[in-house]
Design goal:
The complex is a heterodimer. By secondary structure, chain A is α+β, with helices and mostly antiparallel strands. Chain A is about 30% helix and about 15% strand. Chain A is built from ten helices and nine strands. In chain A, a hairpin with a 2-residue loop joins strand 3 and strand 4. In chain A, helix 2 runs parallel beside helix 7 and helix 7 packs across helix 10. By secondary structure, chain B is mainly alpha-helical. Chain B is elongated, with a radius of gyration of 18 Å. The chains are: A alpha+beta, B mainly alpha. Chains A and B meet through helix 10 of A and helix 1 and helix 4 of B. The complex binds iron/sulfur cluster (SF4) (2 copies) and FE2/S2 (inorganic) cluster (FES). The site of FE2/S2 (inorganic) cluster has 12 residues of chain A, from loops.
Chain lengths: ~280, ~120
């Protein structure tokens, strides 16, 4: 198995005690298969417990470990250290965000903008207690599927040159999500979303550099979503809507197996919820 | 108004200007090329020629259209540059200033075109 000692040059900065960011180096014995995130944990557990970074799922699902690794925004948990083919690896916090500490950045702007574009299905027919179901074809699903994979990691905002110069820009993540919901055949709030994104700080502020799509670790193409939003804002989207069909079948089809037994005691078992359960925090 | 409408008008104004500005250029400055097409224009910048055009309704319409379209196209561009350079929370101030400048220029420009139309032939 390949082993190598790699020097990690990590940007450190605690705004309440440091005047400006500085680099600190750590030597890490790296084995084949170790991700950047594992190396950071090695440093935290063995060399310097004061270093701060975010992570959670360790499998490219939660989006918390985005950072600027060797000059590119990447997910630390999805970046194989030896594949970077360098004996020195430089890690900085994501650009275009304020630093909270070391590699942890303030992502409030990302989530604020995401919220602004109403990232949920809006339809006068949707209720919290549905008695019918929407029929959505595979083709209708494919209209927005790739945009559904967005993790909200914020790599695209870190790569975007417009974001670097204009803090009012809605940003590629939020705009891609506006497109995702606008093209969902169950959604009927396209006009309301266009009021928000068809503005100078929205789709028209994008210069189509495409850096966002290049940086996205999930293969989402926000630049394309923005161009399509521009097209739809001018020519209309000719969107197909899903039928709200039903009622829901009373008896389950025989080829659909039982749900696995609940692992938590007292969990709801009817699969669709009975509406009496505790309301989750949003 | 939605930005896409403003942008679309900007593009449309640009496309119309190609035609109108083309007509202006060929008649006023490229009469040699018009000669190749068999259309003879004598001294288009001579006073008598200028005033002859000024009293024509079609030239009045062409110049008024050119004035409005050029102002809209140009000032929309200036607004875009300003909005990208001045990092403002509310863009409405920049837009308001641009609209006022545009209106003043439109009044001034149309005064000249209409006045020379009314003086036509003098
Ligand atoms: S579009 Fe891609 S880069 Fe941007 S937040 Fe979503 S997953 Fe991250
Ligand atoms: S395509 Fe638009 S959103 Fe994406 S990086 Fe470029 S300017 Fe930013
Ligand atoms: S830790 Fe969740 S995406 Fe990396």
């Amino acid at each position: 198995m390949e082993r190598k000692t790699i020097v990690f040059k990590i940007q450190r900065y605690a705004p309440n005690q440091d005047k400006e960011p500085y680099f600190k180096s750590y030597e890490v014995p790296v084995e084949q298969g170790m991700t950047i995130l594992e190396c950071l944990w090695y440093i935290k557990e063995n060399l310097d417990s004061t270093i701060s970074f975010r992570s959670s799922c360790r499998m490219g699902i939660c989006g918390s470990c985005a950072m600027f690794i060797q000059g590119r925004p990447r997910l630390a948990c999805e970046t194989q250290t030896l594949e970077l083919k360098s004996s020195t690896i430089e890690i900085k916090p994501l650009p275009n965000y304020d630093i909270i500490k070391d590699l942890v950045v303030d992502q409030r702007n990302l989530f604020r903008n995401h919220k602004k574009v109403k990232p949920y299905i809006i339809s006068e027919k949707a209720t919290s207690n549905p008695t019918k179901e929407y029929i959505q074809s595979v083709a209708q699903l494919e209209q927005y599927l790739q945009f559904n994979y967005c993790l909200k990691c914020g790599c695209c905002l870190a790569a975007c040159p417009t974001m670097a110069t204009d803090t009012n820009f809605l940003g590629p993540q939020a705009l891609a999500q506006a497109f995702r919901y606008n093209t969902d055949s169950r959604d009927r709030a396209g006009n309301a979303r266009f009021q928000i994104v068809d503005t100078f700080e929205g789709i028209w502020r994008c210069h189509m550099a495409g850096a966002c799509s290049d940086a996205c670790p999930k293969g989402v193409d926000p630049a394309m979503a923005i161009q399509l939003l521009k097209r739809h804002s001018i020519f209309g989207s000719r969107k197909e809507y899903s039928d709200y069909a039903g009622p829901l079948p009373k008896n389950r089809r025989p080829d659909i197996p039982d749900a696995p037994a609940p692992t938590v005691k007292g969990a709801r078992t009817n699969g669709r919820g009975n509406g009496k359960g505790k309301k989750g925090r949003r | 108004m939605r930005e896409s409408r403003l942008w679309f008008l900007f593009v449309l104004a640009g496309a119309c200007m190609i035609v109108l500005l083309g007509a202006h250029l060929f008649v006023m400055h490229l009469e040699t090329f018009m000669g190749y097409l068999g259309i003879t224009i004598h001294e288009p910048l001579a006073y008598a020629e200028v005033m002859a055009r000024a009293k024509s309704v079609s030239w009045l319409v062409i110049y008024m259209a050119l004035l409005i379209l050029a102002l809209y196209h140009g000032l929309y561009g200036v607004r875009s540059v300003l909005l990208e350079t001045i990092n403002m929370k509310h863009h409405s101030t920049v837009t308001a200033v641009i609209v006022i400048v545009g209106l003043i220029a439109a009044v001034f420009g149309s005064y000249i075109v209409i006045q020379s139309y009314m003086m036509g032939g003098l």
